[in-house]
Amino acid sequence: MQSTRAALRSFRSLPGPMLTGFSAATLAAVLAGESVGRANRGVGPERDIRSAELQLRVGSRAAEQLRVGTAPWEVSFTDIAERAGLNDATVYGGVEKKRFIIETNGSGVALLDYDDDGWLDALILSGTRLKEGSRGTVDFPSGSAPTNRLYKNRRDGTFEDVTDAAGLRRTGWASGVCAGDVDNDGRTDLFLTYFGENVLYRNTGGGRFADVTTRAGLKADPRWGSGCTFIDYDRDGKLDLFIANYLRFELATASEPGTGPNCLWKGIPVNCGPKGLPADTNLLFRNRGDGTFADVSEATGVARVQRRYPMTALATDLDGDRWPDIYVACDSTAAILYRNNRDGTFTDAALESGTAYGEGGNAQAGMGAAAGDFNGDGLLDLLKTHFADDIPALYRNLGKGLFEDTAVAAGLAVENRYVEWGAGLPDLDNDGLQDLVYVTGNVYPEIERLLPHYPHRGPRIIFRNTGRGTFENVTARSGDAAIPHSSRGAAFGDVDNDGDLDVLVMNMNERPSLLRNDYAGGRGWIVLRLEGTQSNRSAIGATVVVTSGGLKQTRAVLSQSSYYSHDDLRLHFGLGASTQADEIAITWPGGGMQRLTNIAGRRVVRIREEPASAPSAAHP
User: What is the pLDDT of residues 443-458, one digit of tens each?
Assistant: First the structure.
């Protein structure tokens, strides 16, 4: 403890951001020798003080690195949403107070090329609102009810609202979006989860979507759908569908704020949950190839994982066996890693892999999840975001299905005040090193008046990859990224096709943000658009390793990641000073390998899967 206090005194002498990243409660508790409460919406066992001590010690070392100065940061974000025409506010629950948990979680966003014109379009999901003092939804005037919004990219920096023309108008408590070509017709389809009834939209071409939920056999009794992802789990070339269900919630009988032990946060009455509310089960549907799906949740073992509050889901090969696994961030409970057993079944390997809990061995309030290769070793690492008074988990892939949480050692412990949501590992400055981004926003807008250190609106946190296994917080130097909002979903992609990655962000009860990356440097880049022929056409589940100028970096084609969101299906790689990718190594979803060499950069390269032997399939 004495060494920790000495570190803290040194830490306090440092300028601004390094100290203010810690909550006042954490700092005071360490000085007083007291325990620090867990970031778990105020419930559950208290976090061990040793975790806070470790955060302070490593945070001090990260601060010391900043003392000696760093290279210029050439990335600045400009929020162009208003001028681009993304002006409709995303309604989601109460503005000044949230009575029930359905008002708090918000929804995702997507960057997708729905019309296949080579330019990314924007989808923003929406919620609705309860009547004041009631449990019924507001009766909005005709034509003004909140809805999901699809904006078509006009290719001139502006977008056109095509929601109605596309057939996507729908009012309800939307949660997540996952995208993929479920019928292999070359068009990207959508699946949306809801507190209520989920929806499968088939892209019929001509800018239109059709609701095919019932026809596909996916219509079911209302539940609280949360994360989802398309996945070809059996490698038969057709996209199957995984659906996470957050918890079981009945609005009519839900407890009011402050009426139970799970309805307080730091002694302040707030909406109840998730602790104390009944958990639900996750689902997996196999694509029959005829437009319908079969429920294989029990047969595959997916439904056997119980007592979780699952949120964001991502599907990719995490243990290097060329079969897709599923990682699920879970709120206030252990995360899930469905390991693909290659025989049509899954086993939860989160505990043995090291991805179930945080570094201190405690369950965390998992919200968002992302995959990338932050240390350039060719293996996919995992990023998971959490609640206030906690830091993200950064699971370094050790190989052979094992991971290690390196968030503290990587310097992420310099910030813990905010509730963290959508996240990613984009290379923002094209230096070949994957940076780290997450958006923030508290779920209890009413507490800011009593606890100003926990603001309802927070910045988008930007960490620059130093190339030494650590990150530097450059939020204050990243332009409009530092402007506070209460954000949830975030999607990454190059909306203006200028070679750097932009960010679309869902903001609670205000217009979304479209953060244009105004990178000022001249480093190279390459974007890969994969098309499966024997594998699913979207190439979802493919893993790509790009080697350039001595740097290696790995990315995966994902159907969902961040927080309930969908990134561009095209994969972006910074090339640094290089003008080409020396080697591109692709592992296709069906298990086949393909290599290309000396591919010129500064362009989008379309790569079709080479003919090979038929992929191995497995069915329960």
Answer: 999 999 999 999 999 9
Sheet holding 402-405, edge to edge: 369-372, 381-384, 393-399, 402-405
pLDDT, tens digit, for every residue of 321-341? 999 999 999 999 999 999 999
Alpha-carbon torsion angle 78, 82, 87, 91, nearest 10:
40
What is the predicted pLDDT for the residue at 4?
37
Whole-number pLDDT of residue 620: 52
CA distance 93 to 104: 7
Name residue, tokens 């929601």. Answer: 163
Could you check whether the bond before residue 274 is cis, i.e. omega within 30 degrees of 0?
yes
DSSP reduced 3-state for 514? strand
Structure letter (DSSP) for residue 502: E
Mind giving me the DSSP string for 35-51? -B--TTTT-SSPBPHHH
> CA nearest 593: which of 580, 607, 612?
612
Nearest to 463 by CA among 483, 477, 451: 477
Q: Are strands 604-608 and 524-531 parallel, antiparallel or unpaired?
A: parallel
Is there a contact between 525 and 349 (Cβ–Cβ < 8 Å)? no
Encoded tokens for 506: 């869902």
E strands present in 257-385:
264-265, 268-269, 283-287, 293-295, 310-316, 325-330, 336-340, 346-348, 369-372, 381-384
How far is 242 from 327, CA to CA, in rounded Å?
Answer: 11
CA 300/CA 344 separation, integer angstroms: 6
pTM as predicted:
0.91
Q: What is the Cα–Cα distance from 145 to 380, expressed in whole angstroms?
A: 42
Closest CA to 481 of 514, 455, 510, 453: 514
d(CA 545, CA 553): 6
Of 240, 252, 323, 239, the C-alpha closest to 543 is 323
Placement of tokens 């946190």 in the chain: 461
Which residue is it, tokens 């119980």?
A: 306
DSSP string for 533-593: SSS-TT-TT-EEEEEETTEEEEEE--SSBBTTBB--SSEEEEEET-SEEEEEEEE-TTS-E
Quick one: 158 exposed, middle or buried, by C-beta within 10 A (0-12, 13-18, 19+)? middle
Q: Measuring CA to CA, which residue among 149, 84, 151 is closest to residue 120? A: 151
Q: Which two tokens stand for residue 206?
A: 């001509």
Kindly tell me the burial class for residue 399, based on how many C-beta atoms sit within 10 Å of its own C-beta (0-12, 13-18, 19 or more). exposed
Token pair 């490698």: residue: 235
Backbone angles phi, psi at 86, to 5 degrees: -90, 75
Q: Is residue 12 predicted with pLDDT exceeding 70? A: no
Distance (Å, rounded) from C-alpha 620 to C-alpha 339? 15
